[in-house]
Amino acid sequence: MSSKTSSRTGETGAAVRDGTGASVLPGLGLCAAITAVAMAAQALEERIAGHPYVEALVLAILIGIAVRTAWTPDARFRTGIAFSAKQLLEVAVVLLGASLSLGAILASGPALLAGIVGTVVIGIGASVAICRALGLPPRMAILVACGNAICGNSAIAAVAPVIGAQPKDIAAAIAFTAVLGVLMVLGLPLFVPLAGLSDNQYGVLAGLTVYAVPQVLAATVPVSLLATQVGTLVKLVRVLMLGPVVVAFSLIAPRLPQEAGLEATGPKPRPGLTKLVPWFILGFLALATARSLGLIPDAAVKPLTQLAGVLTVLSMAALGLGVDVRVLARVGGRVTLAVTASLAVLVAVSLGLIRGLGIG
Which residue has the higher pLDDT, 347 or 339? Predict the structure, then answer.
């Protein structure tokens, strides 16, 4: 998700709470227009070729990026774009819970759960080492490592206050995460033919490497429903690692060396439960539990899944509108190399886990 999306979340929520939700309409309308074009293009592909070569999810991202690069939406659009990229995205994730039984978690087995935890730990350690080797300051290294290993912008935003990161470091980490996250969504499906992955294996790979939960949808829906379900499940377990990681870094923070531009301050406040476990994860788990207990009838699953799909496409349009490809030139070569190398290590570790556990 883009830095503008993250920074305007409070503004969006306040607008809705204050009854001035009309302010979201211009941006929401822009995202809806891109969504309509993307879905129409997919329908045309299906009519001509029998199946879509490029899904509406991907088309929405690409169209959004093209629009954002050619034209920067002014202030009247930004609240609606932020609302679409965050709140609607989170609702889509919650609704997806209705299609997943929690029995799949138990069926995944303790080996996979332990592997996910190990992958996050190894990913953070390797990423910090790479960043420090490239000369990035300690706090910047931690931001990049947590963003790569856990959940992108959300992890960066959660860890930054407890380690006292500088605003410029936070902005650089988030800016590149926004771009690289989209590139991951677009490029990861290539691993299916290149690495000979099954749908189940690809779902595990996506869940272990893609930054945001909704981006897992964009990366897996074009492959199969099984890949989407497995990817979402693995990703949610990975996101739940954010709580322990934030607590761990809050304990480490006082031992970090003082950096130029940072004032010595007292202990940073630790984030509350809603920061460690986002509400939409709780909602997803609640619907998955209801589905597992038979409280959601079979007839309701398909409409809920379809609605989640439409909202996800709309959210991907907003995500694209938050990415200007020119930010690559502004984040610096060392940050670019550090994030890319860290992600490569994460992909390699994830593929090793898949092969090592014999996931079919």
Answer: 347
